[in-house]
Amino acid sequence: MKFIFLGTGTSHGIPVIGCDCKVCKSSDPHDRRYRCSAYVTTNDSKHILIDCGPEFRLQALENNIREVDAVLLTHSHADHLHGLDDLRIFSTAFSHKVTNPKAIEQMKKPPIPIYTNQNTLKDVKVRFDYVFRTHKQGGGVAKIQLFAPESSFNIGDTQITPIPMMHGSLPVTGWLLSESQNDGSKKSIAYLTDLNYISDSSIKLINEKCGKLVHLVIDGLRVKEHSTHFTILEAMQCAAKIPAEHVWMTHITHENSHEEIIEYIKEQLPNVPGLKNCKSVLPAYDRLEIEI
Ligand SMILES: [Zn+2]
Ligand SMILES: [Zn+2]
Ligand SMILES: [Zn+2]
Q1: What is this structure's pTM?
Q2: Measuring CA to CA, how many Å separate 148 from each of 80, 153, 236, 248?
């Protein structure tokens, strides 16, 4: 399984519009962050998009994304959802002048399944109501189908487990992606963003389902407290309960540079003994590729 971070920034992205701070003006490419999203290619060549924010078109172009077989949504905040219209290109062929065999092939494909939770599903139907009505010809709409699974399911050979979490008072869904190995063992990546609370039962669920957790991606917004996101230290304390080989922070603000976050994590590591067996605890960055 190959996993690309399409975006690792908080809801404003970095640089923030109109901001002259040192991070927004940084020449380090690690300090440019699109809104949070990821693209996964599984061992059996299924292509899974996690969240679909306002920069999805740019992310797809820059990462040469040609296929989307399924989408996993964490929640309905604009920074995770508002690129949904650009799924058109992966799910429809425009009705006029369709002669290209590839386009005809695409028209025959079933709608792209989007997996999320009940409240996000309702919000998608309101926000993108035109997708679910009969519409006039021209332009076209994304061909999508919504599902709200409450337990593990499969996309191809990959087991997907929804993980209930809280983002302030909003229930959101983390995703655990697990692949069986040739020796019968299981390896996983967990993607937990936009949360400031995860219950013991959700942590237990991850630990029971993951086999070997190779990568944990977790919301580590900034150093200062926030009412709906983990701080970097809270993310580290949470990660200590979910033993992973590598821990990656995401949903990062412009308050610290990539380099400063690396240093801050190093300073804090002795205070979080549960992470002593991790091989790395680092901020993620856009276009970083990890794999299992
Ligand atoms: Zn967000
Ligand atoms: Zn700034
Ligand atoms: Zn959010």
Answers
A1: 0.95
A2: 17, 11, 29, 27
